[in-house]
Structure formats: C-alpha cells, structure tokens
Amino acid sequence: MHRAPSRMSPAGNGAASATEGASPETQQQVQKLRQSDANVRQHEAAHQSAGGGHAGAASFTYTRGPDGKSYATAGEVQVDISAEAEPSATVAKMEQVKAAALAPNDPSPQDLRVAAQADAQKLKAESEQRQQGGGTASPALAARGASAYAMAQAAAQALSAPPAGLGGRGLGGLVV
Questions:
Q1: Cα–Cα dist 113/32, whole Å
Q2: With contact defined as beta carbons under 8 Å apart, do 1 and 37 qualify?
Q3: CA–CA distance, 19 with 32 (Å, rounded to integer)
C-alpha cells in the first residue's frame, strides 16, 4: 500500500536523537514503523481524494514504537455505497466509489471487494435505467447483474468477519 510520506521534524529539535543511541535492531524497527506510517497515510489519502463526497475521514490504528512515538500501522476510510434515488445518479456514484476503491497503487483485498460491490450496484442501476426507459434487459445481462450482485453481497458478509492474523503488516482500505 502506498501512503503519504512520514512527518519528520526539522533537525536540531531532538527528533533524530531519540534513536541515535539505540541498538541497530531498535533503529531498524523504528524505520519500519515510519515507513508503515507513511504507506498507510498515503493509501488512505488516495481513497479520500478519489472518493470525494462519498468518502469519509480516514481513521488509523496506531502502534507505539520503541522510541515512544505512535505510528499508523492500519487505516480505513468509510465510503457510502448506498443507491441513490435515481438509477443514473447511482451509476455515477458507483463509478466514483470504484475509482476510490482502486485509487491506491496496491489496493487491499477489502478495496477490491468494495470495487466489486460498486460494480454490482452499478449493473443493478443500469438495469433499472433500461427498465424505466421502456426497454427490457436481455436475460443474459440480467443474469450477469444478478450474479455480480450476489457476489458483492457475499463479499459484504465476508467483510463483517474479523480479519485473520494481521502479522504486524499494515492494512489500509475502504469500509462500506
């Protein structure tokens, strides 16, 4: 996951001295935490930027490093994936939601599930548009939309399960 650069303090204020006398292992651990923090923040910022008004504020999970500072090691952005009153508005919204889900260079599995849900909602809205226009969707297209919608619903149920062991790896993603 790509995330924003870590915020480092200017030289001379003691920020660098916190790990200067530390063991190489401690220095390495702090460097990994700094990189994780930068990656998580950049990943979530990409979701927010692409999501516009459909994306909420980022929230982070922090880990305290051996230097006593807290580093973001996981994050999420809430995204509104509900249908709009008009199918055409839903189509436009789901295109933006999908763009937000796939905005980071390395979308997480949850990001991919949100993109799939947006696709399913978009297909359903497009089907509604065709029905409102007097036309009927072909049986094959209707079946494809129903299948995509069912897969998105299954993905949503999987999202409600607690994540498997995180193994200290930073996570980022969207939450619907």
A1: 28
A2: no
A3: 13
